[in-house]
Amino acid sequence: MKIKLQVLIALSISFFTVGYTQTTKKKNQIEFSIGYNSGSLKNLELAPVARYDYNGLVYKLNYERTSKKQNIFEVGLNFLGKTALKTDKLSNFNTEILKAGLDFSYLKQLYNKNDLSIHLGLQSRTNISFFFNKSDYIDFHQELGIASRFKYQLNEEQYFLSKITIPFILGRVTNASANLFSFNRYQSMLWNLQYGYKLSERFDIKATYDFSYNRLQIPSAYRELQHQINLGIIYKF
Known about the structure:
The chain is mostly beta strands. The chain has one domain: OMPT-like (Lipocalin), CATH 2.40.128.90. It is 9% helix and 68% strand. It has a ten-stranded antiparallel beta barrel with strand order 1-2-3-4-5-6-7-9-10-11. Strand 10 (203-216) and strand 11 (222-236) form a beta hairpin.
């Protein structure tokens, strides 16, 4: 009789543990995605060219942690492999570019009701671009901005997520200069739109569109516009 009771208790504990593990919301997630980047660049400090165009594959690795109060901490890495930077105006100024970036953001939950959640916080973005031509050129950007994130849960499996970041300060270092810029001379916007689908308790897949625009109002004018389409997989734990 005691043996049967012990077996029954052990089975009950096992079923409870498995059920709790499956239904508890995961606090951490890691995402890997790969996509296609299309960009346009004007940088008179690099070359007297009205516009460069470039296209290439971009790779992303992101980590996200959600606290008990549903605040979010994010870290993101992105890498654009060496790709051609071309202009139709002056072919002798064609070069190659390699880009890498690192993002940190902390977002506090402001609203959560009727399948809609809203977060607001700060984001830091570090970007470095290497240009390979007759004289190698490096362009380093450090941004700090305000970020807002909106998530809408369509049903148990599907959701939309949108994140907008407006940088308000930029530190820029190149081969020729080092300066700090604010709103009066620097305008920028980053927009991320995601569609996610839940495959299981551990895995999601998602499709993402990213848009970014940067403009510096300085004598050696700088402007950059980028579009990205990404497909990724998310592991939750």
